[in-house]
Structures are given as structure tokens and as C-alpha cells.
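Record type: monomer structure entry
Structure origin: computed from sequence
Chain ID: A
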Amino acid sequence: MNIRTALLVIVASLLIITPALAAENVPAEENPWYWYNQAVDLANAGQFSAALVANEKALSINESMPLAWANQAGILVQLGRYEEAIVAADRVVSVNATDLPNAYAAAYYSKGDALRALGRMNEAADAYAQAYRLDSSLFPPMTVPVHTSEPATPTPAKSPLHPGIIVCSVLVALVCCKARSLQ
């Protein structure tokens, strides 16, 4: 797995920890966040076939999870299933995830990877440009021509969360959960 894909999976994982902890009253087999987290862990371990199965379980419970669709696209790229990855990436955009620019960025980046693998370089460049507009740390691979017709910096409305805010949110959620368990 390349470093960018791993970073995207990690960032997406951090964004879902708080809602996943909030769903603690739901049995694991019925909790889409449980399966999503399993998929992320398996993908990070390089077990993409098993990750796909877990991610599909999450989507079977809740097909409107933009993070799971973005994860699905990344996993499918790693498995070489490029056409399916493009469809999964497009699903992220089809759900209302305007408050999750990182999910959009990850989906566009995976779509770019799939299109590049299929030799569709102009479309790949467009997808990478979309990812970069949402997350300026996601540079297109050097093998893809970069389109310079649009501004390179993301608009303030779509700027990704600052990593410090994410880390603090995760720590607060963990402390709150620990405090609850001690009561």
C-alpha cells in the first residue's frame, strides 16, 4: 500500500472514532462503524480481501456512509478492481458528506489511482485535482499531468480539519468514554 493511501485511511479512521464510540449500545454485528473499523485495520495490515468483506458488511448495514464508500474505493484500487473503485468513489459524492471533505478527498484520490491504472490520464488528473482542492497535502503522482486552470488552494468552506483538532477530538472522546466506563 502506498503511503498516501495509508495516510488517507488513517485520517478517515480518526474522523470516525467519535461516532463509532457513540454507537456503543449497538451489538457489533449490527454496528456499521464496527465493520468499518475492522476494514480499516485489515487494510492497514495489507489484508485487502478481508478488508473488503468487512467494509461491505458496514455498507450492507448503512449504505449512506461516505467514509465507508471512500474506504471501499481505496481497497478496490489495492485489489486491482479499478472500474468498481471508480463506482465506489462516485458513491461518496452521491451522499451528503459536505461536512467530511476528507472523505471526498480520499474518494477522488482513489478514483484518480483507478483511472491512472486504466490509462485514462486526463480523467485521473481531474480526479487528483479535485482531491488536492479538498486536501492540499494530496499531490498527484508525478506520472499524471497536472491541470493548472483552477486554483490550487482549497476554498475555506471545504478546507480539511486541522490535524490538531482531530487529535484533540479523539482524545476528548476517549476520555469521555473512559469516564463513562468508570461510573
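Annotation 1: The chain has one domain: 3-182.
Annotation 2: The radius of gyration is 16 Å.
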